[in-house]
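lol forgot to send this yesterday, sorry. struct tokens for the thing we talked abt
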């Protein structure tokens, strides 16, 4: 696993690891245009809620850096066009919308020449990247208190370094507990159909030397019934007033955890909170059904087979034991605290 951040800005180029190639190949994308960032997000070369937010901010930074505009008004027009393109990439993770709006707002509030505005946009994107790393470290610190020596923690999808600028949210909790010397084990679900668990989480944990065992998504009930797991920690794409939106399969894991009396924790930065909305407002991304009918371009279902492919699902708060964010460990029943955080974010 590379020591560099998952995404970096270097002299007008955004560098990131191509996540679709892992774990077999470590290849880097070097992007100079916002449209390339948008395509990389859409194709899931960059994926995971916090990193797509930061990537979008860097996309706007590319627009600003390479713009020929002399006047602020002209640059604002270009930034707004880029913002529209970025917002059409993936609909579910709120971090993307939050990051785009925050960056455009920063540009709007900056007075002076186009050059001054461009600098403000680049600085804002860098700030967001730094904040993400700090938030994840804090999430790790708070969350590690919930993990005990000897625990086996189940996680779903990839909420690790690759899904963030560094360290990870759910995997940040696991990493922090491990760094504190707690002897823990992890069970990672493979996460059909895009295999973020098998390809990315297993890769990250294995590289760090943290004991990890892979299961298919359908084995969760079995491993819980056999008491092979005693805690669940997952990330989130959007936390609304009444629910947690995360990778498809999360809801089933939460219900199974509830049934078996296993704590179900959600680790996410405040940039993932969207507390002015509820679950009925959430757009769940529907991806190409071929991701289900095919495995790596090889058809596995009959020709012309219909398939569903929602990328996320919605877990009602009643299944969530606690939400671990950078400021605190929150009880989901304390919606007032969450509301306050919502205000804090905006
Ligand atoms: O479709 P993906 O791979 O972007 O989905 C990612 C997830 O669902 C993660 O669990 C979530 O973004 C949290 S990442 C810290």
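and heres what i got for the seq, position by position
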């Amino acid at each position: 696993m590379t020591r560099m951040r998952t995404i970096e800005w270097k002299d007008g180029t955004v560098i990131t690891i191509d996540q679709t190639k892992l774990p077999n190949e470590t290849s880097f994308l070097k992007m100079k245009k916002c449209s390339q960032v948008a395509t990389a997000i859409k194709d899931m070369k960059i994926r995971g809620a916090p990193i797509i937010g930061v990537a979008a901010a860097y996309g706007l930074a590319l627009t600003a850096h390479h713009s020929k505009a002399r006047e602020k008004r002209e640059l604002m027009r270009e930034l707004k066009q880029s913002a529209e393109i970025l917002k059409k990439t993936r609909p579910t993770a709120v971090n993307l919308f939050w990051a785009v709006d925050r960056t455009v707002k920063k540009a709007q509030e900056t007075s002076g020449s186009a050059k001054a505005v461009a600098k403000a946009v680049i600085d804002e994107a860098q700030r967001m990247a730094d904040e993400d790393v700090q938030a994840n470290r804090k999430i790790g610190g708070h969350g590690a208190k919930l993990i005990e020596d000897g625990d086996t923690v189940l996680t779903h999808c990839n909420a690790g370094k690759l899904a963030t600028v560094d360290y990870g949210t759910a995997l940040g909790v696991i990493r922090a507990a491990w760094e504190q010397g707690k002897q823990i084990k992890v069970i990672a679900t493979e996460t059909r159909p895009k295999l973020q668990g098998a390809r990315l989480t297993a890769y990250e944990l294995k590289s760090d030397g943290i004991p990890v065992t892979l299961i298919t998504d359908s084995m969760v009930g079995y491993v819980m019934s056999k008491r092979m797991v005693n805690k669940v920690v997952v990330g989130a794409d959007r936390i609304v007033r009444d629910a947690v939106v995360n990778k498809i399969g999360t809801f089933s894991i939460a219900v199974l955890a509830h049934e078996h009396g296993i704590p179900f924790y959600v680790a996410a930065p405040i940039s993932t909170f969207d507390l002015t909305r509820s679950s009925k407002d959430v757009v769940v991304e529907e991806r190409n059904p071929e991701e289900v009918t095919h495995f790596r371009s090889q058809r596995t279902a009959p020709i012309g087979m219909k398939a569903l492919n929602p990328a996320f699902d919605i877990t009602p708060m009643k299944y969530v034991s606690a939400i671990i964010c950078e400021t605190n460990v929150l009880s989901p029943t304390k919606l007032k605290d969450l509301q306050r955080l919502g205000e804090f974010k905006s």
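Residues 145-345 form a domain with the Rossmann fold fold (CATH 3.40.50.10470). anyway ping me if u want another try
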